[in-house]
Amino acid sequence: MDAVALHLTKVAFGAESVEALAERLRVRGEEGPVFLTTRYLPKRHAEVAGQGSMYWILKHQLIARSPILGFGEAEGGRVAIHIDPKLVLVQARPKRAHQGWRYLEDADAPVDLGGAASGLADMPPALVGRLAELALI
């Protein structure tokens, strides 16, 4: 039986737009590995690492994801969640804000936007974000 991906959700704290979040991750990716820190290793980390994603919540909507590459150690005994700095836009879905991270089952995860036929991948993230806010995509 194939393993089903498990994902995490997190509020994109301090990001005012999808474009700002994408820029933040891009800059951090130029400086070295991109990771988030947390106090504890997720109990279900084996289900997340290498196949799951960090789904970002912005303005009470899941708007994008960053593939999770793995887990490691961070300063002060904390855990690093290593993510790909490339932001993948998803079909916006309402999601209440929360502190820290939460699990998201694969069956409940929104689908990726884009693909060659849709042209959405070529649009500026700010425009895609605004269209999603208006429930047009």
Compact description:
The protein is an alpha+beta fold. Helices cover 20% and strands 34% of the residues.
Describe this structure in words.
With 137 residues, the chain is α+β, with helices and mostly antiparallel strands. The chain is 20% helix and 34% strand. The chain contains 3 helices and 7 strands. The protein has helices at 18-31, 45-48, 125-133, and strands at residues 6-11, 34-38, 53-58, 61-73, 79-83, 88-94, 101-105. Strands 1, 2, 3, 4, 5, 6 and 7 form a 7-stranded mixed beta sheet that branches. Helix 1 packs antiparallel against helix 3 (125-133). It is globular.
Shape: globular
SS-derived structural category: alpha+beta
Give the biggest sheet.
7 strands, mixed
Helix proportion? 10-25%
Low-confidence stretches: none
Q: What do the pLDDT scores average to?
A: 87
Number of strands: 7
Secondary-structure topology with pairs:
Elements lengths: L5 E6 L6 H14 L2 E5 L6 H4 L4 E6 L2 E13 L5 E5 L4 E7 L6 E5 L19 H9 L4
Parallel strand pairs: 1-3
Antiparallel strand pairs: 1-7, 2-5, 3-4, 4-5, 4-6
Q: Descriptors for this entry?
A:
3 helices, single chain, 137 residues, alpha+beta, seven-stranded mixed β-sheet, globular
